[in-house]
Structure formats: C-alpha cells, structure tokens
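Bench log, entry 3. Co-assembly request; chain sequences pasted below exactly as received.
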Amino acid sequence: MAQFMLLLHSEPSGLMQLSPEEMQKALEKFMAWRVKPFTRDGHRLTDDSGRVMRSQGGQIRTTDGPYSETKEILGGYYTIEAADYDDAVRLAQDHPTLEYGGTIEVRQVWGT
Amino acid sequence: MVAHLTRLLGPAHLELAEETVQEAMLRALQTWPYQGVPENAGAWLFRVAHNIAIDALRRHRTLGEKTDAIVAELAHAAAVPDDPYLEDQLRDDELGLIFMCCHPQIPRDAQVALSLKTVGGFGVREIARAFLADDTTIAQRLVRAKRQIRDRRLTLDMPHGPELTERLDSVLEVVYFMFNEGYAAHVGEDLIRQDLCLEALRLGRLVAASSIAAPRVHALVALMALEAARLPARVDESGDLILLEHQDRSRWDDRLIAMGFHYFDRSMAGEDVSEYHVQAAIAATHARAADPQSRDWAMILDLYDQLLAMNASPVVALNRAVAVAKVRGAAEALEALEPLASDPKLRDYYLLLAVRGHLLLELGRNEEAAACFRTALECPCSEPERRFLRRKLGSTGFSA
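Structure output for the full assembly:
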C-alpha cells in the first residue's frame, strides 16, 4: 500500500457560520472519519498562514505564507494508505470537510 | 453551557454567552479531528469556553466595573471543572434559562425561537426552516426577545407560587410546539426534523427531573417518547411516508417506548388529567398493540372523544374521524368530517383532504376521491407527502 497525504484547506469563517448544534453534527462526522482503518496519522496546523522562505540574490527572504491573499488556510493533514490515486480519492471522497466548503489536496508520498 | 455562562455574565449578555460557546465548539472542530477527543471532552470545552469569555471581557470591558469580579468568577469556575455539584448546577442553569425564555413578556413565537437558539443550540437558519419563515424574520424575533430580557431585567431565577404554575404551562406548550414542529416538518424533503423532536424530549425530561415537575409534565414526556418511538418507522428506505397501519412495528424504538410507559405511569399520580394525559393514553394504546389488527380502536375513539371535549380543535376532530372510520366505518367518518370542510383553519391543510379522499376510496367513490387528492396536492406539503398523495391519486384510477 502506498501512502498519501491529504492536505485540508479551508476557511475557518465558513465553519463559524454553523450553529453549535450543527457544529456538533459536523464534529461527529469528522471524528468518524478520523478512525477509518486506512487513516494512519493526522495533525492540526496552527491557525495562521505560516512563513514562506526563499533566497533572493543570496539573501534569504521570509514572507507571510502563501495564502495571505485569501482567507483559506491549510488547517491540517492526514496520512492515509491507498493503492493508487484513484483509490485515495475514493477514500477521501466522504471526508466531511468537502461538505463544509473545504478542499483536499491529495499527494502521494514518494517511495511508498 | 450557554445557560451557565448566561448566569455568570448576566442575562443581558446572553449573546456573548452564545458566541463564546460557538467559538469553543469551533476550536473543538478544528482540533479534535486531527488530535483526537481529549480525555474529558466536557471539561475541555468548559475550560476553553471560560477562557474565551475571560478574553472577550478583558478586551472589551463589556461589563464595566463588574468585569474584574466576573472574570474572577469565570476563572474560578474554569479551574474546578470536576466540581461534584457542577452537573446539578448546569442542569439548574439550563432549567432557569428555558423558564426565562418562556417569560410571559416575550411573545410565544419568540419564546420558541429563543429556546431553540439558546438552550437547543440551533442556528437562525435551522429555526427559520422549522418555522417556514425566512432568516430575517427569525433573527428579528430573536433580537426583540433579547431586548425584552435586557429591558425588563429578566433573570434565571425560577418564579414562585401561581406564577410558577403559569410559567410551567407555558414551558410545556413551548416544548410540545417544538416537538410537533419537528414531527410534522412541512418543507421539501425534510420530512422529520428528528433533532427538534429529540431536543423537545430532552427538555421535557429536564423539567420532569426537577422538583417542580407535575403529573402533566410526565404525561407530556410520555406522549413525546411514544410518538418519537415511531419516527424510524414513519418513512421507508426511499424516504416515502408509511401510514401507521402499514408501519413495521419492529422498527419502532423500544427504548423510547419503554421510556414512554415509564413516564406514563408516573403521570398517573394525583388527580390532574391534562390534554397531555389523554394524548399520551392514545399513543400508549397504539404502542401496546402488537400488530395493526389488534389495535384497540374503540378505546382510541373513546379517548379522542375525551380530548375533543377538552379541546375542540379541528385537528383533534380530524384525528377523531380516522378512529370513527375504524370503529364505525368510512361512511360515518365521512359525516364526521363534514363540518370541518368549512373550517378556515383547515382550508389549506392537505391532511383533511387526504383523509377524505382515503374514505371516499374505501367507499368506492373513486372519482370524488381523485378530486380530493388533486386538491390536496395543491396545498403546502413536504415532498414525501406529495409523493404519497400522488400514489393515492394513482390508485383511484382517475389520475389522468
């Protein structure tokens, strides 16, 4: 089995529109997905856009993260096991973040 | 938790309490799916919510001079989340909040909306959907209700004496209204707003567990539990309506039925016979029958007669007519429906026409039945109800 990373991008303001009752429902869906047999690992990232570093004319330049233009942030990631991209996409299809306006970037881990 | 924070912050800051809980839930939603649920999830939320409230108070100094004292109180509450009395306190706070929401100074429709929002945690959009109203109407209703709370300095303190009895009735009406809204959801595919029903049931049990519970509180809980038990059997896999007599009895929720009978027994204490008692007795008679054939319709009709004597509502009369059909035949039931046809309250009520059509069909008057179903289809009703009516129309042989 190969390993894939699911990078979850979303706008926290979208979730803020939900009522506590709806949030509880959402939470149940997210939690149910977390314990699926193919999920290996997952981490939340902090609520900011991070930093981007690049070298310009021998100088390291550090700027705010790549998403500063939009409200969307990379909220966290999961590692899952899947046969190939098709399989990974299929497994990620019912991830609740999609229902709440988020996007998932699927990337295969090299050598797995 | 909203109730608890409302007590600490003061009812005038109900909104801040709500926002705080929402923010705490959002943090859980952003963290738990990756890191897992913390060992004591309740305490986690409790602590986070208190800290959010403290931050908000410090930042805006909303409460003026009282800020420091309240911050201290919040900090204290957050530090001891495993206080053995906390659960009792939270229950009392919630009870106090719903009694405040049902204060006579707040109009009925706002009472229900406010209870759903603050005690039930429902959003404006969800409430609007349950009431067939638009978001703005509900939002305005809530704003007005909150203004009443502020202007009249309402508190979470329980009323006393005759005022308590009156308020209790008002709370029960709100709870039952909430339940019915959920049970009879009218719009689109959303046939059963099960959440509303379960929230109403939860609130009913909350009141029933308190020291102010009267037999009619238990009767109401019994009624709601017995009716909610049938929810899973009311629609089939494709979401179509199934009539009571065709329901698969094994899909009724046994746990809720047991709960219903338990509360029904408790409701028998004392002399009090409320409408809730009679309705619970009807639901219990349905639940007691092992199969549709053995249902005691004579008893059910008798109970509907009692209910009609207590409350001469056209909807009760309509339900009674169904029992009449079972006991004395379709022709007599049709007669019983006659006076309802001119009732303005039932003018746009598809169920009256559906029942009439059903009876006509039984009497072999198919063409008239078809006309009934066709008119019923023009009334406001949910998508599954519409499909049900179309099926009935098809069975008349006059569908074209």
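The mean pLDDT of chain A is 88. The interface with chain B takes residues 12, 15-16, 18-24, 26-27, 30-31, 33-34, 42-44, 47, 75-76, 78 of chain A (CB under 8 Å).
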